[in-house]
Design a protein that fits this description.
By secondary structure, this protein is mainly β. About 0% of the residues lie in helices and about 35% in strands. The strands form 4 sheets. Strands 3-6-9-12-15-18-20-21 form an 8-stranded mixed sheet, with no helix packed on it. The protein has a 6-stranded parallel sheet with strand order 2-5-8-11-14-17, with no helix packed on it. Strands 1-4-7-10 form a 4-stranded parallel sheet, with no helix packed on it. Strand 20 and strand 21 form a beta hairpin.
């Protein structure tokens, strides 16, 4: 299968390093999208955000401005609440990432909301909303230090 860029709304001065799969999504001004990234339908990447290689941004994820998404970061929108994959996309959950959020390599984010100015450590698994600015790490991710 070849990479594709289909029906993407691009802002100004976006750099995309192929191969990528980007479809039915929106990418803001001055963004960087690294190789081997997939950004699915209804995902939004805010202005000046960098998405490093091998990351997966699924349907329903909104990432704020001035964010950093490290290598191999995985977003999840289906929590298998029925015991397996939800065949109905209406059952998928949304993720909202605030502005100025940095997410370390190989972190996994379940459907959550993260406030502005948060740092997520490499390899962390974010299972709950984060409402306080700080540094979070571990599985499940926990507050290590307030910022």
């Amino acid at each position: 299968m070849t990479s594709q860029i289909r029906d993407v709304v691009f802002g100004k001065d976006v750099k995309v390093v192929q191969p990528v799969n980007l479809y039915d999504c929106s990418i803001g001004d001055n963004c960087f999208i690294g190789p081997f990234v997939e950004i699915q339908s209804n995902a939004i990447v805010g202005n000046r955000t960098r998405v490093q290689s091998h990351s997966f941004i699924c349907d329903g994820v909104t990432i704020g401005e001035d964010c950093f998404i490290g290598h191999g970061v995985m977003f999840i929108n289906d929590v298998f609440s029925g015991g397996g994959p939800a065949g109905d996309r209406n059952a998928w959950k949304k993720t909202i990432i605030g502005n100025g959020v940095s997410i370390g390599s190989n972190a996994t984010l379940l459907p959550v909301s993260i406030c502005d100015g948060v740092v997520i450590g490499a390899g962390a698994v974010v299972t709950k909303d984060i409402q306080e600015k700080g540094i979070y790490a571990g599985n499940p991710a926990r507050l290590l230090r307030r910022l």
